[in-house]
Amino acid sequence: MTSTKIALAGAACGLVALALAGGALRVSQAQAASPAQQLPPPKIDVSAPAAPGRTETAVLSGGCFWGVQGVFEHVKGVKKVYSGYSGGPAAAAQYERVSTGTTGHAESVQIVFDPQQISYGQILQIFFTVATDPTQVNMQFPDEGPQYRGEIFYADPDQKRAAEAYIRQLNDAHVFRKPIATRVDPLKGFYRAEDYHQDYLILHPRNPYIATYDLPKVAMLREVFPDRYVAQPTVVFAKDEPKTRPVKTAKLS
Asked: What phi and psi values does residue 110 have, to the nearest 5 degrees?
């Protein structure tokens, strides 16, 4: 697939094809047997810790981190969501280098959540239902490259077991028209992205990329998971906290 890269204020996260406005949601839903419906909940999940007040983390990759972060910032029980990079070395965890697709990283999000309010398995359910098309390989429409691959980075054996079991469950049920391509690999490190990437969907709802490809995901979250959706998002930075947002341009191709 060929697309035209255009300049985006703040940072250029992937390829934008304005002629395909509104098409991202249709493409994603076309992969599912029952679009705009919840996927079945996991049969195997991670047990919540006995001690209240303890948080857990999930690290997921499902395409451009702007949209995945924006979805989970609206999920009840989620305390904080950071955009960042996983799968490659710390020294190369910089946006310009990751964007070359040669560092081994995937654009990822780190989700800090209260397991007494939402389980790891429920986070995976929302991830596969709303935030990503798990059948795509080394891309997430319209973005291409291994940095946009689907991947679950597990922190412990319980997360590994839950993630692998849920993928098997969904594949066995044929809820997607293609097999799930999302990888399951150990978490070796999560490196937070530059400040100007954090809360990007919240801060830039009129950005053409956000409006076309990511806001429909938040709308689907509200529609499909009304009991999980919260209108007031949790954010990384307070509104009055300064952030560096350099203007970056992408080469036309």
From this structure: -105, 115
Task: Tell me if residue 13 is catalytic.
Answer: no
| 164-191 tens-digit pLDDT | 999 999 999 999 999 999 999 999 999 9
Catalytic residue, from 25, 64, 162, 218: name it.
64
Beta strands 183-186; 150-154: pairing state: parallel
Q: How many CB atoms lie within 10 A of CB 117?
A: 14
DSSP 229: B
- The tally of CA atoms less than 13 A away on the side-chain side of residue 171 is 13
- Amino acid 82 reads Y
22 φψ region: left (φ > 0), alpha (ψ -120 to 50), beta (else): left
Q: Which CATH architecture has domain 18-224?
A: 2-Layer Sandwich (3.30)
Confirm if 59 and 137 have CB atoms less than 8 A apart. Answer: no
Cα 218 to Cα 231: distance, rounded to the nearest angstrom: 10
What's the pTM?
A: 0.85
Residue in 129, 123, 145, 225 with CA at minimum distance from that of residue 180: 129
**Domain parsing of the chain, residue ranges:** 18-224
What is the C-alpha separation between 124 and 50, in angstroms, rounded? Answer: 21
